[in-house]
Design brief:
This protein has 14 helices and 17 strands. The chain is of the alpha/beta class. The N terminus is likely disordered.
């Protein structure tokens, strides 16, 4: 692997637009669309049926298999039906449609005091995380109880990823700024599970003002062992492997588990959700979502319940009709057109941007090499496009397509707007099919 983050890859961050805005609460819709798969791994199985009354926080999807996550009702109401409903990538997923009764009758949740943490075993804490349906909120959506169940592995460094490198997004900043104390308590709970030799919070240079706040809270909580690492504002600094390389110097190849190298990385929102689960007794049913982009006036960081459909959000914030809607950031996010696509546990932002991707003028590669310079993984993106276009799929393996983290830095820096990401994604799909058929290893 080549390097960490290419210093040249600076993108106009646009974060100033929403960074200092107070957290807003998105009004709840009448109908929620709660997918039973909001995580990597096996879809959870529905444990409610049409016509059932469900309470807020009630479990409605049960874990199946070793890697899966529980799903809970974000409100109280009646299960309208179980349907196949679209999610961000356009696939349809089994979804519980719930009619909100706006009464918020909730399950009796078990609350705990921070002072009682020492009374709980690791297994008991892991069970709370497991039962609360917590997954990685930075986009990966990996079930958190699986990540933290490290057995006898030794963790040298526990990294809190506060480096939200995608432009526009300030959801993680909002969590660190609004709930600093809860965030630190969440760290303390996870430290009990991982017993790391060192804990490091990585934040971007443009959020440097958090250092003072963190120092104050860490002194108050007697957590002065925590290091704060101010990282250059560059893309894709927040990608897990780049962050590990920057903070620890360790180079880990894509596909390898960081814990096998003594490192565990968690998104800051995930750790705040651990606090909510252990202390407040609340499962993961809502998250902070940045709404931004030049096509909406109602920019800000909103607390939105999972299962809230895009159509409801549009009704509330009334963006311009011709907006291109992106779930996630502009670099790695996906364009969404279906109004029934809901916010899920990994939705960090919804952007309303100008420009239609279908109308971009694309030209041939001029062999300038900018994409190679921009690639944080030391790959040759223009070769991916060429080999995919020519149908030479086996060459994609030799070119290490599997190492690509789909960060989009190559296409962003390409003067000819060569469709690199489309070739990369479709090329990976082709390799998956060929592997399934035993055509390649
Ligand atoms: S999308 Fe893949 S090939 Fe392009 S810069 Fe990112 S890692 Fe490199
Ligand atoms: S940046 Fe674009 S034009 Fe330049 S080598 Fe890469 S694909 Fe070709």
């Amino acid at each position: 692997m080549k390097n960490i983050v290419n210093e040249k890859m600076k993108i106009d961050s646009m974060k100033h637009v929403t960074k200092k805005m107070n957290l807003a609460i998105m009004e709840d819709p009448e109908y929620f669309y709660v997918p039973l798969s909001q995580h990597i791994g096996q879809i959870s199985s529905e444990i409610v049926k049409k016509g059932d009354y469900v309470k807020q926080y009630q479990k409605i999807g049960e874990i199946q298999g070793n890697v899966s996550a529980a799903v809970h009702s974000p409100i109280s109401g009646v299960v309208e039906e179980i349907i196949e409903n679209p999610v961000v990538n356009g696939n349809k997923v089994k979804t519980v449609k719930i009619r909100n009764d706006f009464k918020y009758n909730s399950e009796n949740m078990e609350r705990r005091a921070m002072e009682s943490l020492s009374e709980y075993t690791k297994r008991e804490i892991l069970d709370v995380i497991k039962e609360s349906g917590i997954v990685g909120e930075g986009g990966a959506q990996f079930p958190t109880y699986v990540k933290y169940d490290i057995g006898d592995k030794v963790v040298d460094t526990f990294i809190l990823n506060g480096s939200e490198c995608e432009p526009y997004l300030t959801a993680d900043y909002t969590i660190m700024n609004e709930w600093t104390e809860q965030f630190f308590d969440g760290i303390k709970i996870v430290e009990k599970l991982l017993n790391p030799k060192k804990t490091v919070i990585g934040i971007e240079e443009e959020n440097r003002e958090l250092v003072e706040r963190f120092s104050e809270v860490s002194r108050k909580k007697n957590m002065t062992n925590i290091e704060i690492c101010v990282l250059p504002t560059a893309y894709p600094q927040g990608s897990e492997l780049q962050l590990i390389k920057t903070i620890t110097g360790k180079e880990i190849k894509k596909g390898n588990l960081p814990v096998n190298y003594g490192v565990v990385v968690s998104n800051v929102g995930t750790v705040k959700s651990v606090y909510d689960a252990f202390i407040e007794g609340k499962p993961l049913i809502e998250r902070v979502v940045t709404i931004s982009g030049e096509k909406t006036e109602e920019k800000g960081n909103y607390l939105i319940k999972t299962g809230t459909p895009l159509g409801h959000i549009i009704e509330k914030i009334n963006p311009e009709k011709d907006a291109k809607i992106i779930f996630g950031g502009p670099m790695m996010g996906e364009e969404v057109k279906d109004m029934n696509v809901p916010v899920i546990k990994g939705t960090s932002g919804i952007l309303f941007l100008s420009g239609n991707i279908d109308n971009i003028e694309r030209n041939n590669c001029i062999s300038c090499g900018y994409c190679v310079d921009a690639c944080p993984m030391g790959l040759m993106p223009m070769k991916f496009e060429e080999m995919y276009r020519k149908g030479k799929y086996k060459k994609l393996v030799k070119l290490n397509l599997d190492m690509c983290i789909e960060c989009g830095a190559c296409e962003y820096s390409c003067p000819s707007r060569v469709p690199l990401i489309k070739s990369i994604k479709e090329g990976k799909g082709m390799l998956r099919e060929m592997r399934a058929e035993g055509g390649i290893k």
